[in-house]
Amino acid sequence: MNQLKSFFLFCSGVDRDMLDRVPTEENKYLGIGGTIFFTGVMAFLSAGYAMYTIFDSYWLAVVFGIIWGLMIFNLDRYIVSSMKRTRGFFSNLAVALPRLGMAVLLAVVIAKPLELKIFGKEIEAELIVMEQEVFQEQEAVIRDRYADRMTAYAGELASLRADLEEKTAARDAAQAAALAEADGSGGSRIRNMGPIYRAKQQAAADAQAELDATRATHEPLIEEKQSQVAVLRSAVDREIAELERGDYGGIAARISALDRLSQSSRAVALAVLFVTLLFIAIETAPIFTKLIAPAGPYDHLLAEYEHGFAAEAEDTIAVRSARLRNRIRYHTEVGVYETTADIAEKKAEIDARLRQRRQELGEQDFGLG
């Protein structure tokens, strides 16, 4: 039990020596440490599931999950332990806001893979629908590639068949007219095989000849076009059969499926929102605890300890600054004095040379006179 307590206190980032001096604060930091630990555990599960979905390997999932979980655990521990209370609520809020933003971001990242696992059955059903849609789109692309040629061949076939039907209808009409003239049911209404009948019979024979000629030219073309259409259809079927129909269920597809479910079902959307809010609440709980809880003995002791270091540092800096100013002043004044003395000495030398020069000039003038 003591080892577990020590571990949770380590997770909270608290200073054990200071906490031993204020044992009443122990429970608060035990709760904070437990929250940070379980956040790391959920991060491990989240990353492990995401890696297993991507690579389908337990070893990679476990290794990456441990790395990610430890990283989130360390980051949460730092965020909470680095948050120092100051005087005033708004000052504390200003300190907490960046940390809250980071905590919310981490919560969203951790929550998403676990949401995919929680709604796994619904996502699997939606993935089947999405897979069929993808396959239909792929088939539609292939069919569209051949659609223009298929349409052209279909139009040519329709034109050839329409021409044959037209010639057949003309032949049938001519034969019916000749038969009606022969039996008196049409035409002149006189039953005989006279010249009118023979003329109509000749017209029927001409129509039959024209139909035969048209069949002789069109039927090979129709067979050729039908063969070409069959070749295109065979090519379409072959390319559709050669499509790669791999497993459709990567992490991106699952996220997309969950998004589609959220858009189509208000219940799913609310459930996803509540799961995300739950993780945000868990991730931000330690920060809110330190933000809204009144400053305790540990906070005062820590502030006193840090203030002592700050005061000592300021005192050391002040002493060193004074020494530096004195040293600068000393060197400055000594330099000024030395410079002044050098100038006075130089002036005396110049005056002596000038006096000597005047004396020499005076003696020269006296000798000439």
From TrEMBL:
Transmembrane residue ranges: 29-52, 58-76, 88-111
Pfam families: DUF4407
Keywords annotated in UniProt: Coiled coil, Membrane, Transmembrane, Transmembrane helix
Coiled-coil ranges from the UniProt annotation: 157-217
Domain of life: Bacteria
Tagged with keyword Manganese: no
Record flagged with keyword Membrane: yes
Identification of the protein by name: DUF4407 domain-containing protein
Phylogenetic classification of the source organism: Bacteria, Pseudomonadati, Bacteroidota, Saprospiria, Saprospirales
